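Weekly sync, protein design subgroup
Attendees: M.S., D.O., the rotation student, P.L. (late)

Item 1: inverse folding check
M.S. brought a backbone from last month's batch and wanted to see whether the design step gives back something sensible before we order anything. D.O. pointed out we never logged the input encoding, so this time it goes straight into the notes. Structure tokens as presented (203 positions):
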């Protein structure tokens, strides 16, 4: 089902929704106090992906989009609905991507890729030179996404995830500060938007 979306820094009014989404995606990784710390930290980028209320959609659109967007407005929620969260830490010259979560009902639609792209774009804006993350060894969909952006596996943490005793793969990407990576991000921004549009999503 298509909706109007907004990807933006998380705000305090969405903290309770973030904790609930965290529970659905990660089984309760961070508390509301943890999210509040990230929200207030100058070294964190905490992003939310929100389904926009129809009444808030006011930007100008061309005639070819108008009919589609009017139809979407009929099914948009009456208040913002948080369906995605992402966070990264800026540590010296490194961006540590700490979480990406998409509501289970909205997975497989390109939203995770869109969130990941936004985090990398934020890292570039902070002039980070490298990025790193950890991922479950069994999460082949996520691993494929990270490799698409140039990440490579550099190590493994044995039995890192306590809920399943599963290993974590450590992945790294160098060269975020180079012009060619900026060009790559630009090309992937178009791909992300196209991927969403094919499913009728607008951001």
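Designed sequence read out in the meeting:
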């Amino acid at each position: 089902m298509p909706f109007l979306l907004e990807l933006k820094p998380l705000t305090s009014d969405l903290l309770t929704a973030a904790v609930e989404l965290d529970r659905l995606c990660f089984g309760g990784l961070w508390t509301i106090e943890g999210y509040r710390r990230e929200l207030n930290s100058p070294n964190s980028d905490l992003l939310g992906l929100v389904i926009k209320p129809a009444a808030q959609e006011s930007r100008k659109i061309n005639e070819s989009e108008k009919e589609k967007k009017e139809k979407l407005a009929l099914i948009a929620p009456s208040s913002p609905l948080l369906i995605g969260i992402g966070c990264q830490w800026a540590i010296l010259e490194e961006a540590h991507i700490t979480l990406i979560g998409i509501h289970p009902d909205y997975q497989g639609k390109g939203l995770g890729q869109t969130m990941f792209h936004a985090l990398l774009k934020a890292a570039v804006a902070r002039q980070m030179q490298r990025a790193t993350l950890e991922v479950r060894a069994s999460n082949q969909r996520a691993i494929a996404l990270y490799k698409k952006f140039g990440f490579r596996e550099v190590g493994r943490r044995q039995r890192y995830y306590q809920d399943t005793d599963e290993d974590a793969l450590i992945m790294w990407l160098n060269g975020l500060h180079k012009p060619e990576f900026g060009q790559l991000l630009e090309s992937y921004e178009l791909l992300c938007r196209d991927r969403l549009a094919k499913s009728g999503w607008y951001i």
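Discussion: Helices lie at 15-26, 32-40, 63-73, 111-125, 140-148, 179-198. Residues 98 and 141 are 17 Å apart (CA to CA).
Action: P.L. to compare against the previous round before Friday.
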